[in-house]
Amino acid sequence: MISRRLNKPVFLLIILTLVSACTAPQSSPNGNAVQVNEPVLTLTPTDVDEWGQPLNAQTVNEPVITLTPTDVVQENGEWWKTAVFYQVFVRGFYDSNGDGIGDFRGLIQKLDYLNDGNPETATDLGVTALWLMPIHPSPSYHGYDVTDYYNVNPDYGTMDDFRELIEAAHQRGIKVIIDLVINHTSTQHTWFKQALESESPFYDYYIWQDENPGYSGPQGQVVWHRASNGKYYYALFWDQMPDLNLKNPAVKEEIYQIVRFWLEDVGVDGFRLDAAKHLIEEETQQENTALTHEWLANFYAYYKSLKPQAITVGEVWANSFEAVRYVRNSEMDMVFNFDLARSILSNINDRDAISLSNTLTFETRLFPTGSMGVFLTNHDQDRVMTVLMKDIDKARLAAAVYLTSPGVPFIYYGEEIGLTGQGDHRNIRTPMHWSSERMAGFTSTTPWIFPKMDYPEKNVQKQLEDPESLLRFYINLLRIRNQSDALQTGQFIPLSSSSPSILSYARVSQNDQILILLNLGDQPQNGVTLRSPEGLKPGRYRLQPLAGRLIDAIVSVEQNGSLDDFEFPETIAAGDVLIYQFIQIPES
Description:
This is Alpha-amylase. By secondary structure, the chain is an alpha/beta fold.
């Protein structure tokens, strides 16, 4: 007998019908994350960031365009589908030579923190892939205005240093992808300097008009800029980052050769494609154009012909209906899911388990397995701990959601120790906190930008010593994920809960079955009843705790895969993260 009405995710039937039939578009149930003000440090001056915004300006969200989804591609079972990525801003990670700037050798020295190659140890994070933000020469601190695609930023070291980093990472079982910025270059790139002469063969490497066409960008920004030759060039993000003309076969060939160099000669494992939805404009349509999709499909075929295990991860800052098109049609291996990231944080702030369950179900049904990059925030957004108002319980819940639900996780460096930051993009790319020593153990001198003032209390060394720290939580959670087929690639089965505060779901693979219970509320929950109409493996089970306490209970799953009114026997405290493995009881 159920003492209270079950709060079923009533949106589920609509989702399943929508995805299977591919009918008219719907909106997924997302909200806006709550932000709080935080003091911004006075730092080394730079005029603008890579978006062309004045430093200290607030980030502007891109508009959402909804389109009807297309068919789903077949699963390939490639390495990235079970990976856990770690996003690194090399400049802000670790300084090995005392110049105040993070570098390749510093990253090499810290690889054992990320993954020491030994699954039995418990002091490394356990990530299996790195995404390195731009490593090429650039006049800007962020690196998104490239001046040389065949070299590395001298601030970070030499090409030999980078090759050593790749080798050291691979020895530990860590794949490495790098930012590939092909939408635009720097105005200081030799191509653009030569393009200023209209007779130059490089003139058509960029997009020119004799007169200003007069229209603005998707966010209302100026996109046509007058050059020294009196003509106007197109630059979507900033006048110092002119867009390349990817319609030009010569530009395509240049990019193909760049990709060949990094995949075959240097040995990287793939690329994160910056600004992927903006690659080719069609007059005033400046994002997600048919020509962009066509170009990427050809590009995909090319790099797979060079290195079938190489991948691309696309920055498609758009709604999920638009983003999923890029992976369904073999244009990229993966895209980031911005809708889901926003929903996780907003629903956790609102303590809304029902909406979050609906969103998780919607998104995981929409994306093919291994094609959805899941994350909380990145280098262009306010940091997780700031969005969650410095609430460590909420930070644990957010981490548990995206590290146990479907998708390929991307951890932004410092997220695992609770770094904060907002607004000015440099303020969310500050140095990693390694210890309580001067400058957070990042450097022995004055850094390029100062670490957060809370580093004496919030750092890797201190949190490794504290079994209840956020870092220890991440380490334990990644150990669980890395050892579970179900958590890596298993089917997502939403469970109905009698409590609106409890987010409950199962992950089911051929050889594994996991139950996840998260209390998003601020009160303990007793007598929580769970139900699922289908999807689980039939049998009688006991629940083996992977995260949580041992309980005395038998779970019975019917032959049709349904779970009928299982009452969890213990109190689920506010902020609890409980993970159980189903252990089948042999028939007597």
